[in-house]
Amino acid sequence: MNEEAVWLAVYILFVVSVAVAVVVLSRLLGPRRKAPGKLTPYECGVPLREDVPGAIRVRFYLVAILFLLFDVEAALLIGWAVVHRSLSEQPDFGLLVVFEVVFFLALLGVALVYGIRRGALQWD
Fold first, then answer.
1. N or C: more exposed end of the chain, with fewer CB within 10 A?
2. C-alpha distances in Å from residue 39, one per residue of 36, 48, 53
3. Assessment of whether the complete model's pTM goes beyond 0.70
């Protein structure tokens, strides 16, 4: 085994042992006071209301997924546009790069059509 692998193993062993030591010491030395309010849900210091509104509609999650989908698309297309010229100068590689982007945009188009058919963009 070379020297770098030995140091990597020592480092990994050190990191794992520190994590285990912190958890064990916290469990052994930490306070164990049971209070009735300790197990109640807590959010931002605001007391809970008894009249909780209904569940969030699934449509909000679908809109969030569509937003993430097209946000990632924009980030990938910007990166592709920056390196497109250097990639297309290589022989027999330019057409492959363009095909990959067209395929990616076609998949996004299918996702958009699916979202429209599911009614994700209609607010009743």
1. C
2. 7, 13, 21
3. no
